[in-house]
Amino acid sequence: METEVPNARIPALATFLQEHRSQAHRVLHHIIGLSRPFLLRSDLTDAIDDLCADDPALADTALARALHQCEEAAIDASWIYLALRRRVARWDYLRIHLEAMDLQQVSVGEYLGFKEHLATGGHEDPFGLEIDLAPFYRDQYKLKESSSIGRGVEFLNRRLSSRLFEEIGKGDQRLLSFLRMHSYRGQQLMLNDSIMSVAELRNALRQMLIPLRRRPTHTPYEDVAADLRSHGFEAGWGADVERIRDTMGLLLDILEAPSPRALEEFLGRVPMIFSIAILSPHGWLGQSNVLGRPDTGGQVVYILDQVRALEREMHRRLAEQGIDIEPRVIVLTRLIPEAEGTLCNQRLEPIAGTRNAAILRVPFRNEAGEEMQHWISRFRIWPYLERYALDAERDLLAELGGRPDLIIGNYSDGNLVASLMSQRLNVSQCNIAHALEKTKYLYSDLYWRDNEDRYHFSAQFTADLIAMNTADFIITSTYQEIAGTDDSVGQYESYARFTMPGLFRVVAGVDVYDPKFNIVSPGANEDIYFPYLDAERRLSHLQPEIEELIYGGERPGETRGMLAGRDKPLLFTMARLDRIKNLTGLVDWYGRSPALREQVDLVVVGGHVEAASSGDDEEREQIGIMHHLMGEHGLDGQVRWLGIHLEKQLAGELYRYIADRRGAFVQPALFEAFGLTVIEAMSCGVPTFATCFGGPQEIIEDGISGFHIDPNHGDASAETIAAFFRRCAEEPEYWSRLSDAALGRVEAHYTWRRYAERMMTLARVYGFWKYVTDLERAETRRYLEMLYGLQYRPLAAAMEG
Ligand code: UDP
Ligand code: LCN
């Protein structure tokens, strides 16, 4: 294993503490004076910046530099412990004795132990469970550069293709047996039994290429099928002679000297994926009237668009390889008998816009075997998942007539069920988080007990750890989701080391340098969210409805506020009324900013306007705050609050309506894991202002294809937006420049076409490597099974009782 170079800042810091004791004392004294046991990066940065304002020379000291690298400090009367993040996912833990100014490096376990000590008021458990996956890591398969994170498949191809015929030994023999194992419902594909060795394979390829070269390129497979079969080749090489020659040429190249690119290209063609199961158990997943619950939103939109794109891509690839098989995609979710007027109580629902994909619903059952009748929040579903996994597996196998070729989990619950099912069926597992709750809630790990009744993070984070480690590959929407930025911790990175006092301490939970991570960003449905200038596709019949929504009168129970005039551009936002979406924050900034109020009117589409119509505590609270703000700032003539849920077609046309009137979209969330609305708005050509915390930070290039705003600095955010509109008023082409750049950005990076193409390649490549190497790692699996049995199961069972 390559050892990390020591952090050069540490000796410099030790020297500084000894040689500039009074300066060091002043800084640490100031920090202790904040009187909090735990300080976050922002607290420490503010503290040091305050001190530097008085004493500018301080800025250039080792102590100030170290504190700027510090993600967290934990403090008691004698010690200050620091967690330094020197760069992406590389951490050092230190402690400084507050009197002696003595600096020591400590292990992650000691650091977490100190946090436990503080958080429990000295009642920590010295023999608590410590979870450590590091002994299972295999360093030869780890990335080294942070710039490679999220490009795991490229790394794996490079690393392993060079070894395929060397260290892995017998690589060519394995490749041969891999090619011989493909079949579909009894029909052999690729190779038949007459090719038994690699030498025979080489020979057969050379022999076969001779007659194929003489054939016209567009000769269909059927015309050469008999000849191919007699040489040992079955269907799967290509739909016509040109493609067959090409595929065979690629394999010959690989057998000669495997290059990563040829290997990926070749594997991308092997017919391996005929059916996919997509898991999203917690339910309320359907095609109409289902969005808008606290638990559903982007994930449902994502999955349905994903299915359409994947089915199309599977179909394309099979057709190119000359295989006449209808691919199947099944979305497994929960059947909810009390479906409140939706189709969530229907067992099978075909997915519109696909040839053969469907939602398959299987009910949750309790311990007594009775079906659960009502919707259950995603925070409370843990006791049902194990039984669900078995029931869903049975129904899936019956529906498909066999095993799927890939299982994709969604969110913590889907990923756990995907783990259970993949292992039982021996099928590759892909995880998609959508959002990891751990980073959304401050101290959700350390003070987990305080939130246990409401959120049950004990079960959720245990499930996350298990699923992240069993997955063959994980796809994420952005880089920051994995590893954050220079100054912020990634969502997955936050699972590397953490503690939940009284439950367990994790010293190595997941490694973001693992090549299982791949960034595959979603898109926005191009049939719905298309540019405002695409006049022919515009849904002009929806215009009157939109006019009425925005400028119409009061609609009891559905609206608050009537816009007094029509002369200003519109500032638009749309989200559920969750606290974290921060729509109330935006209304507050708007209310406080005369500059912004002068430039634009505000349209808010979110949730409900009547607290009584919402069944969610958090939403009711937000509704109350919103009414208060409307009154406090006197916004009824300038803000149109629509407490409704917009159907997609209407939402798409509304974004374009906003663009027609040279408006903008705002996504003001305190944190947004990815943010589909951001790419939807941009796909319609609407200049977009979005939170700098989470996915939008990466989606938007600040000042070029949109703007970042800091939800913690509302006044500054309001000013950024007001400045934009002022500049547009003076320089009208400025708006178009931003709009064009937003369109270009989405087209280049966020499309479902690219998504499906990548996903299908990844599924094949990881499937191949799993087969020819021992990437499956029996020892890790055993450890995780124990975690599941001894840790997860009792937590889930306790919730049911
Ligand atoms: N959405 C919608 N109508 C609404 C509110 C939201 O169609 O009234 C859609 C929105 O267009 C987006 C999804 O719900 O596709 C929300 O996804 P996002 O990723 O922005 O946030 P999430 O709700 O998943 O946190
Ligand atoms: C969940 C979220 O919170 C959003 O940020 C994502 O855009 C959505 O899922 C789709 O992945």
TrEMBL record:
Q: Where is the Glycosyl transferase family domain?
A: 567-726
- Coiled-coil stretches: none
Q: Which UniProt keywords apply?
A: Glycosyltransferase, Transferase
EC numbers listed for it are 2.4.1.13
Give the Sucrose synthase EPBD domain ranges.
151-238
Which enzyme type, at the first EC level? transferase
Q: Which SUPFAM superfamilies match?
A: UDP-Glycosyltransferase/glycogen phosphorylase (SSF53756)
Where the record annotates domain Sucrose synthase first GT-B, the positions are: 262-551
Which reactions is this enzyme annotated as catalysing? an NDP-alpha-D-glucose + D-fructose = a ribonucleoside 5'-diphosphate + sucrose + H(+)
| Protein family (similarity comment) | Belongs to the glycosyltransferase 1 family.
Please report the name of this protein according to its UniProt entry: Sucrose synthase
Q: Which organism is it from?
A: Thiohalocapsa halophila
Taxonomic lineage from the root: Bacteria, Pseudomonadati, Pseudomonadota, Gammaproteobacteria, Chromatiales
